[in-house]
C-alpha cells in the first residue's frame, strides 16, 4: 500500500515534469523509505505520549537512531515485520527501563558490555547496503566515535544527577544497538570480505 501511494505520487511528479522519468525508481525508493520511517517513529511517539514517556522516548530514539544508522545490525525482510518488530522492541525497552531504573549498577554493567561490542564490531555490512572497504572502515570509525560520545553524555547526565529513567533509556539505546549487531553477526546477515568484489 505504501509503495502504491509512493508510485502514484512519483508518477504524478514525472507527468508534471517535476522529476526526470529515468529517476522515478530512485524517488519511489526514497519516498517509501521516508514514509515507513515516519509511520514507525510516529507510532512510537504516539505510544510514548499515551503512556506519558515522551521525554525518555525522545532520548532513546535520539541515541538509538543515531548509533543504529552507523552500526547497522539485524534487519527484517519486510516493512510489516520491521514495523511490528520495532514497536514490540520499543514496548520491551519501556518495560525493561521500568525495571532497570532501580538497578543502576546493572544498567552500567550492560552498557559496558555493549560498548565493548560496538568498539570491537563497529558496523555490520548488510547485503542490502553492501559498502565497499573504504565505506565500511569509515562507518566503523563513525560508529565507534559516536558510541564514545553517547557514553560520555550518559556519564555526564549521571554525574549531574539526572533522572535515572532518562539515563536508562539512553543506555538501553546503546545496548540495543549492540544486541542487533550481535544478532546480525550470529545469523551471518552481512557481506563477507570475499564477497565484496
Blueprint (SSEs and pairs):
Blueprint: H1 2-15, H2 24-50, H3 54-71, H4 79-100, H5 104-121, H6 133-159, H7 164-186
Helix pairs in contact: 1-2, 2-3, 2-4, 3-6, 3-7, 4-7, 5-6, 5-7, 6-7
Structural description of this entry:
76% of the residues lie in helices and 0% in strands. It is mostly helical and 197 residues long. It folds into 2 domains: 1-50; 53-195, no CATH class. The chain crosses the membrane at residues 38-67, 79-101, 107-129, 141-158, 164-184. Keywords: Cell membrane, Hydrolase, Membrane, Protease, Quorum sensing, Transmembrane, Transmembrane helix. GO terms for molecular function: peptidase activity. InterPro entries: AgrB.
Provide a short characterization of the protein structure.
The chain is mainly α and 197 residues long. It has helices at residues 2-15, 24-50, 54-71, 79-100, 104-121, 133-159, 164-186.
Amino acid at each position: 500500500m505504501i509503495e502504491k501511494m509512493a508510485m502514484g505520487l512519483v508518477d504524478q511528479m514525472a507527468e508534471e515534469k517535476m522529476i526526470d522519468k529515468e529517476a522515478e525508481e530512485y524517488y519511489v525508493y526514497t519516498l517509501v523509505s521516508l514514509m515507513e520511517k515516519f509511520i514507525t517513529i510516529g507510532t512510537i511517539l504516539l505510544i510514548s505520549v499515551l503512556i506519558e514517556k515522551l521525554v525518555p522516548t525522545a532520548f532513546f530514539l535520539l541515541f538509538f537512531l543515531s548509533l543504529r544508522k552507523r552500526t547497522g545490525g539485524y534487519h527484517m525482510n519486510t516493512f510489516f515485520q520491521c514495523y511490528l518488530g520495532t514497536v514490540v522492541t520499543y514496548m520491551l525497552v519501556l518495560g525493561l527501563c521500568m525495571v532497570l531504573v532501580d538497578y543502576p549498577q546493572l544498567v552500567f554493567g550492560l552498557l559496558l558490555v555493549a560498548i565493548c561490542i560496538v568498539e570491537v564490531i563497529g558496523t555490520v555490512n548488510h547485503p542490502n547496503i553492501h559498502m565497499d572497504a573504504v565505506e565500511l572502515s569509515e562507518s566503523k570509525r563513525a560508529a565507534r566515535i559516536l558510541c564514545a560520545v553517547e557514553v560520555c553524555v550518559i556519564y555526564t547526565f549521571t554525574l549531574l544527577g539526572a533522572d535515572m529513567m532518562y539515563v536508562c533509556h539512553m543506555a538501553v539505546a546503546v545496548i540495543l544497538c549492540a544486541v542487533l549487531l550481535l544478532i546480525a553477526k550470529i545469523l551471518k546477515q552481512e557481506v563477507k570480505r570475499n564477497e565484496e568484489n
